[in-house]
Design goal:
Layout lengths: L6 E10 L3 H13 L5 E4 L12 E4 L2 H6 L12 E2 L2 E7 L4 E3 L15 E4 H14 L3 E3 L4 E6 L5 E6 L2 E3 L5 E6 L2 E10 L6 H9 L11 E10 L9 E7 L8 E7 L4 E9 L9 H8 L3 H7 L3 E11 L10 E2 L2 E3 L15 H20 L8 H9 L1 H7 L4 H27 L13 H4 L22 H6 L13 E3 L4 H10 L3 H4 L5 E6 L2 E6 L9 H5 L5 E3 L14
Parallel strand pairs: 1-2, 1-13, 2-8, 5-15, 13-20
Antiparallel strand pairs: 3-7, 4-7, 5-6, 9-10, 10-13, 11-12, 14-17, 14-18, 15-16, 16-17, 19-20, 21-24, 22-23
Helix pairs in contact: 1-3, 1-7, 7-8, 8-9
This protein binds flavin-adenine dinucleotide (FAD).
Flavin-adenine dinucleotide binds next to helix 1, strand 3, helix 4, strand 14 and strand 17.
Length: 549
């Protein structure tokens, strides 16, 4: 294709992604200097459309950014009142008391929120301050300057044919240039991945680790609804097959977030994370709660789990990684929104100082220092051994040792274990199918549990069909020639949206990619054992349309 000519617009800071990290950065920049030119680009059809985290929010990030958020009407309406932790067996459960847990695990003072709605509110605040926010604009490429620095992004390219050539309604999009570019794409961001590889930002770090999180919103019988109740579970149905667990958060209006996370370092390629989630809802404790209710929404998204030791270097010339683009989730707390906000604030402060000093296109080292030496580093360092303990020693031992480790870190800033490594990445953890038994999953009953495609329709995901498939195979043959015989092609199961199928055509197996179903969770980019799938951005506005996830 001939070189594409695009118009360019100049800004002080270009921000990719309107999640809590990107929006916090935009708000802080304008707080510091109302004259700064700041733009936020979001691939979802509106702000919040791709935000999955129906969350327990630690308000420390928001307190630091907008101390009067209550007066300004932030949608933090449900304070946590009750905090339960259950260990499930197939038919029963044991409640783990709260007192042996370190204080950081306590949810009192936190809020059950729709992060989609929090982001919508943050976007309103940002726009009132003069930030330009463009939803429906996927950033598909980075633009580099003469000295190899990141100087901008390409956004808003529409109308390509399936083969990548310009179609009849082709629009080339624009280049948006900034003195600094902030990548706040969330977990496994596609541009962030390019930047991490190009500048070697993960050199010397542990591999990033992930889980896949699936979530449904249920409207339940008002008699069973207990606003402000948070319940986490571990154990059944995953047992020793994989790490992970569930969350059940009672928000307002008789709604409950029911979610399930499976750590992606599982070995058995027959494991089917989505079906584990469906099976979990048949546990008596969950089934009793949901009976008589209805599921009103479904979604899925990967979550970063590598923590402190996996966090890449955060800056390269002209660019900074914010929030979960760099993996800032505190894993035992299943919380990353507070750190995403704090990182946005810190990046904005570093960029403001740099711009004031007439710098541009260099490394914002002050941001890196703030994250590592400040509140985010403290939060992540304290829990750094929990995930490697889970992976190495399993659930029971890691609960005891991880608890002890969090206590010693909390009380004395000290760990008996130093900093444990993660070893392999999640793709490498997958073992050959012949070493494992297939798992027999019960058929969904259509009342408590649902088949994948029915549930995907509750994510309201949509992709224009006449565009190139955004899930790129490095080698078209690998799924059938390598993954199928060796790993029983696990893409058929690890994808929570049923994008990948192996069908029979003319007596031969064929790999089919139903990219229209994709909910942008990025699990395939992470877990494919051959690392043959690359997730790229489809055209803007496509993907899920989450209401208030
Ligand atoms: C199942 C699950 C449950 C969780 N529960 C909690 C919880 O209870 N509490 C908590 O604090 N945290 C929770 N988290 C973690 C939390 O979701 C993340 O830490 C947080 O979303 C990170 O914020 P972010 O701004 O970095 O990224 P995101 O919130 O992911 O936002 C990124 C935004 O960038 C957009 N984007 C990405 N790429 C591009 C591109 N190329 N062009 C344009 N736009 C782009 C996306 O559409 C998205 O809107 C949970 C995560 C999962 C998956």
């Amino acid at each position: 294709m001939a070189e594409i000519e695009r118009e360019a617009m100049e800004y002080d800071v270009v921000i990719v992604g309107a999640g809590p990290a990107g929006l916090s950065a935009a708000i802080r920049l304008k707080q510091l200097d109302a004259d700064l030119q700041v733009v936020v680009l979001e691939k979802g059809s509106e702000v919040g459309a791709h935000i999955l985290s129906g969350a327990v929010l630690d308000p420390c990030g928001l307190n630091a950014l907008i101390p009067d958020w209550k007066e300004k009407g932030a949608p933090l309406n449900v304070e946590v009142k009750e905090d339960n932790f259950l260990m499930l067996g197939e038919a029963g459960q044991v409640r783990i008391p709260n007192f042996p847990m370190p204080p950081l695990m306590n949810n009192h003072g936190n809020y059950i929120v729709s992060m989609g709605n929090v982001c919508r509110w943050m976007a309103e605040q940002a726009e009132e301050m003069g930030v330009e926010i463009f939803p429906g604009m996927a950033c598909s490429e980075l633009v580099y300057g003469d000295n190899g620095e990141v100087k901008g992004v390409v956004a808003g390219e529409f109308g390509k044919n399936p083969d990548g050539t310009p179609g009849p309604a082709y629009e080339p999009g624009m280049e948006l240039h900034g003195k600094y570019v902030f990548l706040s794409e969330g977990v496994r961001g596609s541009l962030s991945k390019e930047v991490i590889a190009k500048y070697g930002l993960s050199d010397g770090k542990e591999p990033q680790k992930y889980g896949v999180g699936m979530k449904e919103i249920w409207e339940i019988d008002p008699a069973k609804h207990k606003e402000g109740t948070v319940t986490h579970t571990m154990g059944w149905p995953l047992g020793s097959n994989a790490g992970g667990g569930s969350f059940i958060y009672h928000l307002d209006n008789n709604q409950v977030y029911v979610g399930f996370v499976v750590h992606l370092n599982y070995k058995n390629p027959h494991l089917f994370p989505y079906m584990e989630f469906q099976r979990f809802k048949h546990h008596p404790v969950v089934a009793d709660l949901l009976k008589g209710g209805k599921r009103v929404a479904y979604g899925a998204r990967a979550i970063t789990e590598g923590g402190w030791q996996s966090m890449p270097k955060l800056v390269a010339p002209g660019v900074a990684l914010l929030g979960c683009s760099a993996g800032m989730v505190n894993v035992p707390r299943i919380k990353g929104n507070h750190n995403a906000m704090l990182s946005g604030k810190a990046a904005a402060e570093a960029a403001f100082d740099a711009i004031k000093a007439e710098r541009s296109g260099d490394e914002l080292t002050a941001y890196e220092a703030d994250v590592r030496d400040g509140a985010i580093g403290k939060d992540l360092k304290m829990v750094r051994n929990v995930k490697p303990m889970w992976s190495k020693w399993g659930l029971t031992a890691s609960l005891a040792l991880g608890g002890l480790d969090m206590w010693t870190n909390n009380l004395f800033g000290f760990s008996f274990f130093g900093t444990l490594g993660h070893g392999k990445n999640d793709a490498q953890s997958t073992e050959e199918a012949s070493k494992h038994k297939p798992i027999d999953y019960p058929k969904p009953d259509g009342v408590l549990s649902f088949d994948r495609l029915t549930n995907v329709s509750f994510s309201m995901t949509n992709h224009e069909e006449s565009q190139p498939c955004h899930l790129r195979l490095g080698n078209e043959d690998t799924p059938i020639s390598v993954n199928l015989p060796k790993f029983a092609e696990p893409a058929q199961r690890y994808c929570p949206a049923g994008v990948y199928e192996v069908v029979e055509k003319d007596g031969k197996p064929e790999f089919v990619v139903n990219f229209q179903n994709c909910v942008h969770c990025k699990t395939c980019d992470i877990k494919d054992p051959s690392q043959n799938i690359t997730w790229t951005t489809p055209q803007g506005g496509d993907g899920p349309n989450y209401p208030n996830m």
